[in-house]
Amino acid sequence: MKNLTKILLILIWVNQLFGLFGIMYIDFDLFLSLSPISLLITFLVVMYSNIEFLYKSYGLVLLIIIVSMVSEIIGVNSGLLFGSYYYGENLGISIFGVPIVIGLNWVVLTISCGNISNYIFSKNKIFSILLGSFLMLFLDVIMEQVSGNIDFWYFNDDNLIYNYVCWFLLGLLNQYIYQNFLNKKCIIISINIYISFIIFFLVLNFKEYV
Questions:
Q1: Which of 110, 122, 190, 191 is the most exposed place for a label (fewest CB within 10 A)?
Q2: Residues 133, 194 contacting (CB under 8 angstroms)
Q3: Is 10:193 a contact under the CB 8 Å cutoff?
Q4: SS3 annotation, 19-62
Q5: pLDDT for 88-104, tens place per residue?
């Protein structure tokens, strides 16, 4: 089990750092176009490290994907959720304007942040759900700073407060769905995925200003 965890940790960091290095120093457009593959790898790592949850509650994973995708589709096509925004080309194949990997990414963030918050507030589910949602929102704030520069998604207005409110509420719903069926998980995988995401987007954001 320890060897498997080490392999998954290596995969997480090789996936993120190799992609980051390629974007910055090899071929910006090529490596960004591979982002769906990178996100799929991360999704598979999350699923494999939470395999017990997947076996028992695979329907909940599908529910999180559906809820998130429907919310994003409503947002992209109407602006009623998240504000006025649209996705670029680097996240791959889309359904009604929303890349399929976005649904997978919501699962990755929900499970990773849920595991971290549950580890901190294991005896208080309300606080755990709230913290999980705030962790998701914090990462979204970081991603928004660079999303347009890497052709992930674009906002048509500068006021992102409404976007953050909607992100938190959808995160809250997903955390509620997940944490009501949460058992003890490998916390080290979740922490490393979360940190690797933060580093990835912070480095890209810093690169824009140096």
A1: 122
A2: no
A3: no
A4: HHHHHHHHCHHHHHHCHHHHHHHHHHHHHHHCHHHHHHHHHHHH
A5: 999 999 999 999 999 99
Q: Is 8 left (phi over 0), alpha (psi -120 to 50) or beta?
A: alpha
For residue range 131-154, list pLDDT tens digits in order.
999 999 999 999 999 999 999 999
Q: What token pair was written down for 79?
A: 């602006």
Q: How many CB atoms lie within 10 A of CB 157?
A: 11
pLDDT at residue 183, rounded to an integer: 65
Whole-number average pLDDT of the chain: 92
182, with CB counted inside 10 A (0-12, 13-18, 19+), is buried
Distance of CA 163 to the CA centre of its chain: 15
Residue type, 97: G
What distance, in Å, lies between the first and last C-alpha atoms of the chain? 42
Query: Using an 8 Å Cβ cutoff, are 113 and 132 in contact?
Result: yes
Q: Which helix (H) or strand (E) holds 108?
A: helix 100-120
Whole-model pTM: value is 0.94
